[in-house]
């Protein structure tokens, strides 16, 4: 017994019919197209993740600059009030 009650012989018969209908060249082309499609999907996902990480880094740098500017402004205000 194979997958879900399908025996190995039934799978081989179906495979033989598919090969006869489409031919080996067309199946190879289909396989390579599927492979390139998966590679493209993976690369676009990694590019998207890299862009998100870069954007988060920029936001963090902007927050740090804003905090430093605010701290400097507070120190200047404190010095002005002491005088």
Top keywords for this entry?
90% helix; 83 residues; 1 helix; mainly alpha
Structure, explained:
With about 80 residues, this protein is mainly α. It has one domain (about 5-80). The chain has 1 helix and no strands.
Q: What is the radius of gyration computed over CA atoms, rounded to a whole number of angstroms?
A: 31 Å
Q: How many discrete domains?
A: 1
Beta strand %: under 5%
Distance between termini? 92 Å
Strand segment count: 0
Largest sheet: none
How do the helices and strands follow one another from N- to C-terminus? Answer: H
Instruction: Give the rounded overall mean pLDDT.
Output: 84
User: Rough shape?
Assistant: rod-shaped
Structural class: mainly alpha
How many helices?
1
Percentage of helical residues?
over 70%
Enumerate the spans where pLDDT stays under 50 for 5 or more consecutive residues. none
Compact overview of the structure:
This protein has 83 residues and is mainly alpha-helical. 90% of the residues lie in helices and 0% in strands.
């Amino acid at each position: 017994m194979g997958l879900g009650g399908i025996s190995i012989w039934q799978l081989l018969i179906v495979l033989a019919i598919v090969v006869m209908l489409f031919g080996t060249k067309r199946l190879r082309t289909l396989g390579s197209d599927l492979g390139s499609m998966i590679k493209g999907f993976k690369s676009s996902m990694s590019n998207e993740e890299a862009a998100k990480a870069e954007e988060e880094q920029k936001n963090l740098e902007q927050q740090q600059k804003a905090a430093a500017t605010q701290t400097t402004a507070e120190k200047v205000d404190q010095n002005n009030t002491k005088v």
